[in-house]
Amino acid sequence: MRLEGDFYTGADSRRQTAQLAVAGDALCLVSGGGEQAMSWNSIKVSPRVGNTPRYVYLPDDGVFETSDNDGVDRLVLHFKPGRLNGFIHRLENHLGLILVAAVITVAVTLFTFFYGVPWTSRVVADLMPQSVKATVSASTLRSMDMQLFSPSELPEHVQERVHDHFAPLLLLHPELPLNVEFRSSESIGANAMALPDGTIIFTDALVVMAENDEELAAVLAHEIGHVVHNHGMTGVVQSSLVFWVIVMMTGDLSAFADTTVSVPAVLMSLAYSRDMEREADTYALGLMQAQNIEPMYFISIMQRLEDSHGQGLDEAGHQEGSVSAEKDNGWLSHLEGLVSSHPLTEERIRRFEAAR
């Protein structure tokens, strides 16, 4: 049994024509530098990948390269007889099995992102102690206060009035440290958000926009839903898991910055966020019905918020981003739903209208 190929000594890059042959229980390398005997246990053979050249790694950093894949396979079977090596080789070269493996890999990857990551995130987030949530929330709020927020400019009597109106809803969950704070922010405008520890931020613009305190109570019910379902901590864990799953799949931290990798990850993270928003809406609707707050208050504040976040008028004369514009856009409305972190406002409004 003799293999023809090239030999690299490891000391330099020069290539030498060589032969690798079986000599009893050993191997013999014949090259321009003479003959070299070695034991099988002292070498390492690269796996077969199609018809690409094979490499036999020799002692002292030497490498023997050959295109005789069948010869290398016979060499391996000579020193390591058994059915396992032949079986593995057949598997590696079976096109049908390769396609099945590819399909299974894609299916497992999709299952991991769409089901495994969200489920694991919820489990891990629910195990987080309140002290961790408090630390994460305090750090987040400090950062937002430096970059997005400034102290509230609402008059004291307005803040007290809203706090008094919110008090019955905040006491519904004594196990949660729910509290409401006000901030001014030109950059984000009318908005509200819930932090993992139960702190709920209302911007001055949202309070001014509301025509009555019941509309603000409807928004509060939605934000309490985020806290009750632990969405804030789940989102933090989920983002970390998505990042590290991609790193493990690619084997390179820099791959996460590649558009072909990061865009799908971002879209999937947004889809998770839409599910959380729907869950918070479900909680809000149930709470409002239990507290005899008309669903119409949620509808009216949502319509006003949608209009305030629009970007002007479209060709039909509707404000871009408004519910009317969504109806006229047709398929564009569905495309917006794919990449939006919140469900379409029209979808949310229909749900509350059905409960009236």
Describe the structure.
There is one protein chain. The protein is α+β, with helices and mostly antiparallel strands and 356 residues long. It folds into two domains: 79 residues, Pleckstrin-homology domain (PH domain)/Phosphotyrosine-binding domain (PTB) (PH-domain like); 226 residues, no CATH class. It is built from 13 helices and eleven strands. The longest helix is centred in the first third of the chain and has 33 residues. It is elongated and about 95 Å long.
**Low-pLDDT residue intervals, each spanning 5 or more residues:** 259-270, 311-341
How many domains is the backbone divided into? 2
Q: Which strand-content bin applies to the residues?
A: 5-15%
**Mean pLDDT over the residues:** 80
Q: Globular, elongated, flat, extended or rod-shaped: what is the shape?
A: elongated
List SSEs in N-to-C order. EEEEEEEHHHHEHEEEHHHHHHHH
Count of alpha and pi helical runs: 13
Compute the gyration radius: what is it? Answer: 32 Å
N-to-C span: 86 Å
Number of beta strands: 11
Structural class: alpha+beta
How are strands sequenced across the largest beta sheet? Answer: 4-3-2-1-7-6-5
Quick structural overview:
Helix content is 56%, strand content 15%.
